[in-house]
Specification:
The protein is globular and about 50 Å long. It is 44% helix and 11% strand. 41% of the residues are buried. Helix 2 crosses helix 3 and helix 2 packs antiparallel against helix 5. It folds into two domains: 191 residues, Up-down Bundle (Four Helix Bundle (Hemerythrin (Met), subunit A)); 79 residues, Nonspecific Lipid-transfer Protein, Chain A, CATH 3.30.1050.10. Strands 5-4-3-6-7 form a five-stranded mixed β-sheet. It has a two-stranded antiparallel ribbon with strand order 1-2. The longest helix has 23 residues. With 297 residues, the protein is an alpha+beta fold.
Length: 297
């Protein structure tokens, strides 16, 4: 896939890596600061995730941070095998893992109680220390992830995606103007372009019955990270492709944030259109059907 606006993993110099670590540390501290300012009652309010209160979202963020630090450390030791109780690399998706992820976060929130934020802060610190310590020759070191083997350096991108989406999950029910952090958008697009684990389109896809006639959705994304791609859905499978000269069933025109919220199941097409965030050309029913294949927890 030709995505010239994105930097190839192999082109990431050590200086760029250090700058990416700085962005990650800054975003971690910013989200932690926001959470520290929440009143106690807010922690048990509903998030944008149907199955999670705010405290469950934070427990999930904490658990993922711990997992990333551990899996990168294991990868540096040459171990890319699945830890006990986890699926083999490349065999899991959001759809197949959703229940396990949801219930695990709920259980962890109960266990951690009022130590949720302190635990998140500690585990984030451990993760950023591991990632900051990567030597140039280790940035491409393969590491385990249920969604597939991931180069060590790209766990920065995976963490920035987690922070951006789940901060939105916490903020948006109370703040309709909440958005995705602009500092995280390039990383989320890198994951999408390179089809990396939980940052890939197949991870976000919830399959259904096979379609007799596959549907092609074209996204014309304007800013701040422009891209023009097709999402081809056959019901039980999905592909991300460069937009060519062939006709699409539906063309969506939007900004990068709206594109990512749609493909990660955070907003549906109808409210996005009503809010003026999304322009649609083509079959209105096919456009409305997009959300059935892309869902959050």
């Amino acid at each position: 896939m030709t995505l010239s606006v994105w930097v190839s993993k192999k082109e990431v110099s050590m200086t760029m890596h250090e700058n990416r670590v700085k962005v990650l540390r800054s975003e971690m501290e910013r989200v932690q600061g926001y959470l520290a300012g929440l009143p106690e009652i807010a922690w048990t309010e509903q998030s944008a995730c149907d199955l999670w209160e705010v405290r469950h979202v934070v427990a999930h963020l904490s658990g993922v941070s711990e997992f990333y630090a551990t899996t990168v450390t294991r990868g540096l030791q040459g171990d890319t095998s699945a830890p006990e109780g986890r699926p083999d690399p490349g065999t899991a998706t959001g759809a197949s893992s959703g229940d396990r992820i949801a219930q695990g976060a709920i259980a962890n929130a109960e266990m951690l109680g009022d130590q949720l934020l302190a635990t998140l802060t500690e585990r984030d610190s451990q993760l950023v220390s591991v990632l900051a310590g990567l030597a140039p020759e280790n940035l491409e070191t393969p590491c385990y992830h249920p969604g597939g083997i991931v180069p060590a350096g790209n766990f920065i991108d995976l963490r920035l995606k987690e922070l951006a989406l789940h901060e939105w999950d916490v903020r948006s029910p109370q703040d309709p103007e909440a958005g995705l952090s602009g500092a995280c958008l390039p990383s989320i697009m890198i994951l999408l372009a390179n089809s990396l684990a939980s940052g890939s389109l197949p991870w976000a896809f919830w399959p259904g019955p096979s379609l007799a006639n596959p549907v092609r959705y074209r996204f014309d994304v304007t800013r701040p990270v422009p891209i023009r791609v097709d999402i081809a859905v056959s019901g039980d499978k999905v592909r991300l492709e460069d937009a060519g000269d062939s006709n699409a069933d539906v063309t969506f025109r939007c900004d990068t944030e709206t594109f990512l919220l749609l493909t990660n199941g955070r907003i549906a097409t109808a409210p996005a259109i009503a809010a003026g965030r999304l322009e649609v050309e083509g079959d209105s029913q096919v456009a409305a059907d997009f959300g059935q294949w892309f869902k959050g927890i």
